[in-house]
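Record type: monomer structure entry
Structure origin: computed from sequence
Chain ID: A
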Amino acid sequence: MLRLTPKHLFWLKVIFHLLGLLPIGYLVLTVILGRAGGDPVQHIIHYTGIGALNALAATLLISPIAKLTKQGLLMQTRRLVGLYVFAYATLHILAFFSLDLLFAWGLLFSEVVKRPYILVGAVAYLIVTALAVTSFKALMRKMGRRWQTLHNGVYLVAILAPIHFYWSVKSEIIEPSLYILGFSVLLLWRMPWFKRRFSRKGVNKTAQKVTSASR
């Protein structure tokens, strides 16, 4: 298997930047050309929300992929991908507040009361903001152990964000249900008992292969 080098890591980060920026360019082009559907505002809100969920899923996937493939350098891309979670979530909230509510602060508070899913999304966004602000190495060193405790909050975001999506839809629940399932798997993967069980299966399969080969 090809081992990642610092040179490979540079180009991998370039690819991740393109994957993060191109969808935004596509959204702008779609809106300019009038191809954002019958309700462009809801299209923008939904599109940026999905972008945040996808970036979050990608962030959570990096660690298990790095461990399975033994590519430790891959872990150095987590901050980059995580910042795109913050970028898309910020665009999502800005689109909702500016295009849907027209900057009406009073209406925002009443919407939070009427629609609990907005409160759930707001809590997730506050956590994501805290993670983005403290993602730099200088703050990481300054915070010490507290940094890791804070950044474990990404797992809470992985619970709140798909719930926010599920509650926000009126009828089409298939897509948010798939996100809930996907994030559930990503979180289960990090459970110690799940890792032990997976490791035992891997050891048993290896032992079976060795036994078969020796016959």
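Annotation 1: The two ends are 29 Å apart (CA to CA).
Annotation 2: Residues 209-215 have pLDDT under 50 and may be disordered.
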